[in-house]
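**Archive record**
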Amino acid sequence: MIKKSRLLSWLFLFKENMKISFTKYQGTGNDFVLIDNRTEFFPKGNVDLIQRLTKNKFGIGADGLILVENHSSLDFEMVYFNADGSQSLCGNGSRCAVQFAKDLGIIQNQTTFSTYDGVHDAFFLEGLIHFSLQDLNEILSGGNYFFINNGSPHYVTFVADVDKIDVGHIGAEVRYSKAFAPAGTNVNFVEIDHPLLKVRTYERGVEAETLSCGTGVTASAIVAASAFEMESPISIETQGGQLFVSFVRVGSKSFSDIYLAGTAIKVFEGSIDV
């Protein structure tokens, strides 16, 4: 005999069955599942579903999931989830959302939209998407590292040779250390190779190194400008490609007009039964 609780669980799963159309985008190797949720059909509280869709080999596979929704006064709302279902600002994801919104016909070559930490603008110029971040007025120093929260928390440390760093192991140690508990932090390893920066990032929410982290390279560039007087714009080399960060220096630890620029590429589109 089937227990009532199990039967109710099966009925719930049956009710939840649906076909979801999606488009996969990547920004310098940071990849995302994007869904047009203007009809608000997607169950945003279903963390298990988000994890299943983003899981490599068993789902679509991605570093995060993005919903594009209607907004009452702006062009659109971007709702971002890390692969584990948590939320934060995502720089590369925001550029992909802007490209998706353009592909959907929601915007043309410039936009103002809302996401995790407030209102942002973006525009297309010379093949790149330029995405604005909030002004920064605080950079914390911990001796051998710096810390910035630019919509997502970032630990930044400078190293002699970033290619020799065990990002997965050291990154996890810092991410889960008591100093950053309970929320944890993203961890960026930065090599200065004038006039470039080379950056590798362990991403909280993905719990691994990603090929690129937009807010991470932005945090790294701002710290390099503050600590080493690097000038805007700064070119950053990631495992997934090249990004650019521009800014206006207001003070030694204060910056405005911060923009992250890079490509956002449509990989494929499809649908999945869940």
